[in-house]
Amino acid sequence: MAQYEFMMILDPSVWEETLNESIDAVKKALWDVKAKIEKEDVWGEKKLAYKINGSETGYYILWTLEMDGTHIKTVNSLFNLDGNIWRYMFVNLDA
């Protein structure tokens, strides 16, 4: 298993309950592929470098994970289905 940082930017304009549902869905998807969440760092709403969907801010979350990299493709397809998730990126810390 490799260590990854996983950064996600969500739509800040949705209700807090909807935002939490998207975050919970992401955590469930990670747990389903046996990823171990070592650290969660919620940055909250921050200014974006460029507009996404007309918004100048995004809701940022950074996770440190331990997971099998072969499952990244699986969770990517699930994250693409959630319209509240604007951007996300996995960075391999072992490389």
Q: Rg from C-alpha positions?
A: 13 Å
Give the H and E element order. Answer: EHEEHE
Care to count the β-strands?
4
General form? globular
Write out the CATH superfamily name.
Ribosomal protein S6/Translation elongation factor EF1B
Alpha-carbon distance between the two ends? 12 Å
Query: Helix content range of the residues, please?
Result: 25-40%
Rounded mean pLDDT is: 93
How many individual helices? 2
Structural class, by secondary structure, is alpha+beta
| CATH architecture call | 2-Layer Sandwich
Explain this structure to me?
The protein has 95 residues and is an alpha+beta fold. It has a single domain, classed as Alpha-Beta Plaits. The chain is built from 2 helices and 4 strands, in the order βαββαβ. It has a 4-stranded antiparallel beta sheet, with helices on one face. The model has no long low-confidence stretch (mean pLDDT 93).
List keywords for this structure.
alpha+beta, 95 residues
Concise summary:
The chain has one domain: 2-Layer Sandwich (Alpha-Beta Plaits).
Give the SSE map.
Elements: E1 2-10, H1 16-32, E2 36-52, E3 55-67, H2 72-79, E4 85-92
Antiparallel strand pairs: 1-3, 1-4, 2-3
